[in-house]
Amino acid sequence: SPPPGESLGRAFEAELTQILRQQCWNSMSWDSIVPGFHEPGFQICCPGLSHSPRSSSRTPLMMACTRKNLEVIQTLVEHGANPLLRNKDGWNCFHIASREGHPEVLQYLLDASPGCWDTESTTGRTPLHTLCLVFCLLSRCHYTPDSRDRCGVTPFMDALQNGHVGIARLLLHKHQACPTAVDALGAQALHRAAVTAQDGAIQFLVSELGVDVNGRATALRIPALHYAAKEGHGHTIQTLLSLGADIQAKDGKGRSALHAASAGQRAEAAQLLLRAGLRDAPDATGTLAQQLARRPELIQVFQETQIST
């Protein structure tokens, strides 16, 4: 009888070779892997390769899960590859497949190793934090609602700060996510979406879910408008104002959104706020927003405002 693996054909061999080459796997010679695959008794958990969570090396199965070729993954598992092994960051194959967003790979891994979903990385992140397609996990797995990583970030927050409103809806309806949950610093999904300029997510939170557009974050009581101003997101500032954000709002230190824009050296944001009617005023320490300006274009914005008034 032919040696095990001979019937896999050249196409499979080329695919596996390409995976190993593209991943620049230097922990052992890739030339020694593919030919050996056809030898009797070959083990996918290759000799000389450490699979402990402390190892920097990834297994061939982990590499295969970065691609969509289910045939390669199935063959590796059928020849003894262990989906539960973790890399140095604590990620197993299910973490990796979740990140890549291939539902057929996720389904297969769950069939091959039903417990592979129940894992956390070294920073406390579950596959639910990193997935691109949530439905498979929510329908087949049993994650705790609003599970958090070490920064207190929930999957719902992750989805919205990256603009995935559809995933957020799914988490809300299928996983009972809390839209006003706060991270370790006290920021809600609203504030995180303002930082990343996800206007659609902000519209969803405020218009559909009734989240307070003037809600405060952290011990400094910072509104979402301040976050958008600090990052220089002009369109997000306009979105927040259109949803009822208080342009006169000040944080716990008496700083306005204009102070935030000036601290970030954001000339366009400062100009937008001034044109919308916000006037410079001292914060709790007596500091004007104009005093924080360092860049010439921002200094010019304040000078032009003084001339016009």
From TrEMBL:
Keywords: ANK repeat, Cytoplasm, Nucleus, Repeat
Entry-linked PROSITE patterns: ANK_REP_REGION, ANK_REPEAT
InterPro entries on file: Ankyrin_rpt, Ankyrin_rpt-contain_sf
UniProt-listed Pfam families: Ank_2, Ank_4
Xref: Gene3D superfamilies: Ankyrin repeat-containing domain
ANK repeat boundaries on the chain: 56-88, 224-252
SMART domains in UniProt: ANK
Localization of this protein: Cytoplasm; Nucleus
A cellular-component GO term for this protein: nucleus
PANTHER family the record matches: ANKYRIN REPEAT CONTAINING, ANKYRIN REPEAT DOMAIN-CONTAINING PROTEIN 16
Subunit structure comment from the entry: Interacts with AARS; the interaction is direct.
Entry function: Required to prevent the misactivation of serine (Ser) with tRNA(Ala) by promoting the hydrolysis of Ser-mischarged tRNA(Ala), thereby playing a role in translational fidelity. Binds directly to the catalytic domain of AARS/AlaRS and captures Ser that is misactivated by AARS/AlaRS, preventing the charging of Ser adenylates to tRNA(Ala) and precluding Ser misincorporation in nascent peptides.
UniProt protein name: Ankyrin repeat domain-containing protein 16
Species of provenance: Malurus cyaneus samueli
